[in-house]
Structure prediction request, 116 residues.
Amino acid sequence: MMLININNIFKDAVLEENVDTLEKVLSSSDTRIDLIEEFSKQHDIYRLINIIPKFRSKGLIANIQDYCDLIVSRDIKKEIPNNFESSVVKYIHQKNKQENKIKHLQEETFEKRVVS
Prediction:
């Protein structure tokens, strides 16, 4: 019986940009998320992201791309300092505001209705 370390095969396939081996490993592996996670801890995830569009399986491309995007966004969140404050910028179109005031807030359009 021969044991094969799938992490090493995956890592070598990414580093050598061997698309066929990489696609076989990812499509047949139950632990593809773990493989990508381990690879992203030691190497640049963008190497894998650049290889993904060369796959033949569109479903596999979408699945792996989504997971890589999650890893990248999680890493970006780690880089944001704790004292960072978010802000909201509001853009107000003054002309629309005035026109709406004239159109909708005329006294004659608001008739008193008796509620029974």
